[in-house]
Write a structure and sequence with these properties.
alpha/beta; D-Maltodextrin-Binding Protein, domain 2; 2 domains; 10 strands
Length: about 325
C-alpha cells in the first residue's frame, strides 16, 4: 500500500467490468500503485505493457488500428504528439480536457483525437550551493554558454528530457540558432553524463557547478540525503530552459475497441487526474500536479512561477530531426 491510496469499499468490483490494456512509458515502480488503486476502486482490470516511451510510440505507429492497446501513457509530450499526428488517438471528452490548463492539452483534442497531460516535468538548473551564489545563476540558456561557466556545466545529451528541450528550442528559435547554441555549449567545455541522475551527482560532488536537468532528480536526492549541497534554480519566463513538459495519456483508436473499453480508458485518465492520484505523483515521484488544489512537490515552486507556458508541446514530436541536429553539432556520443 502506497501513501495516498486506500482500499476500495467491499463490493466495489463489478463482475462484468471490462479490462483494458495500457502501453506505459512510465516505469512500473512509479505508476503501478496508481493502476492497482484504480483496479481496486473500479473493478476494471488494467493490463500493462511497460517499455520506453519512444519504443512504445513506434510500436503503436507500426501496429496501427490492430494494436491491443486501449491507452498510451507516455513520459513526454513529443511521443504523444507523434502518435496524435498519425491519427491514432480518439477524441477526449471536454470534461477531461478542462481538468488541466490549456497548455497541457493537445491543441487538436477539440477537433480530433488528442491527449491530456497528467503530471508536469520542469527543466531546471541544479547547482552546487557551496560553489555558486544564487544571485549569479543564469537566467536564460544563452547565459549558460562560456564566461564564468566555462567548464562548469554538466548535461546528459542522450536523455529524452534534454532532447525534448532541444526540440522546444528548434520549435521556438529554428534549427540554425539551435545548432549555434549546441555547438557553443560543447565549445564551452560543458561535460556530458549518461543521465540526469549522474549529472546531479556530478553537481553534488563539485565536479561541475551547475547541471541542465529535470527538477525532480535533485528533490529525490535531497529526500534521501538532505545535507547534499544542491538546489534547483527555475529560470522562469518564456526561456526554453524553463520548459514544462508533461507525462500524459490518450485513448487509442483500434479495431477491437468498444464503448466499454473506451469509457474505461477515459475513467483511468480521470482517475490519474483525481486529487488522490495527483497527490501521489507530487509526493512519491516529485512531479508537478496539473489540477488545481494539489500542492506541488516539497521544495518546488508552483507551476505558475516556473514559466515557459507559451511553448506548444505538440511541436516536440520531431525527435528524429532533433537527434540529427544534435549529431551534426557533435554533442551526441
Amino acid at each position: 500500500m502506497h501513501a495516498g491510496f486506500g482500499r476500495a469499499e467491499d463490493g466495489a468490483r463489478e463482475a462484468a467490468s471490462p479490462s483494458i490494456t495500457v502501453y506505459s512509458g512510465r516505469a512500473r515502480q512509479l505508476v503501478a500503485p496508481v493502476f492497482e488503486s484504480f483496479e481496486r476502486e473500479t473493478g476494471i482490470r488494467v493490463r500493462v505493457r511497460y517499455g520506453g516511451t519512444a519504443e512504445l510510440a513506434a510500436l503503436l505507429l507500426e501496429e496501427g488500428d490492430r494494436t491491443p492497446a486501449d491507452l498510451f501513457f507516455a513520459q513526454d509530450a513529443g511521443a504523444l504528439a507523434a502518435v496524435e499526428r498519425a491519427g491514432r488517438f480518439r477524441p477526449l471528452p471536454e470534461s477531461l480536457r478542462r481538468t488541466v490548463e490549456p497548455r497541457f492539452v493537445s491543441r487538436a483534442s477539440e477537433t480530433g483525437g488528442g491527449w491530456v497531460g497528467v503530471t508536469g516535468r520542469a527543466r531546471t538548473i541544479v547547482y552546487n550551493t557551496d560553489l555558486v551564489d544564487p544571485a549569479a545563476l543564469p537566467q536564460t540558456l544563452e547565459e549558460v554558454l562560456g564566461g564564468e561557466w566555462t567548464g562548469k556545466v554538466g548535461y546528459p545529451p542522450t536523455n529524452a528530457s534534454f532532447q525534448a528541450m532541444v526540440s522546444a528550442m528548434r520549435a521556438r528559435d529554428g534549427d540554425e540558432k539551435t545548432m549555434q547554441w549546441l555547438r557553443a555549449l560543447r565549445a564551452s567545455g560543458a561535460k556530458t553524463y549518461a543521465n540526469n541522475t549522474e549529472t546531479v551527482r556530478a553537481v553534488a560532488s563539485g565536479e561541475v557547478a551547475i547541471g541542465l536537468v529535470n527538477h525532480y532528480y535533485a528533490l529525490r536526492m535531497l529526500t534521501e540525503s538532505p545535507r547534499l549541497p544542491i538546489a534547483n534554480h527555475y529560470m522562469g519566463g518564456d526561456d526554453v530552459g524553463s520548459l514544462v513538459n508533461v507525462a500524459g495519456a490518450g485513448v487509442m483508436r483500434r479495431r477491437g475497441g468498444t464503448d466499454a473499453t473506451h469509457e474505461a480508458s477515459e475513467r483511468l485518465i480521470a482517475f490519474m487526474l483525481s486529487e488522490q492520484a495527483q497527490s501521489y505523483f507530487a509526493t512519491e515521484t516529485f512531479e508537478f500536479p496539473l489540477i488545481a488544489g494539489v500542492e506541488p512537490p516539497a521544495g518546488a515552486p508552483t507551476l505558475e512561477r516556473v514559466g515557459a507556458g507559451t511553448i506548444d508541446l505538440g511541436a516536440l514530436s520531431d525527435l528524429e530531426g532533433t537527434l540529427r541536429l544534435m549529431s551534426r553539432a557533435g554533442v551526441l556520443p
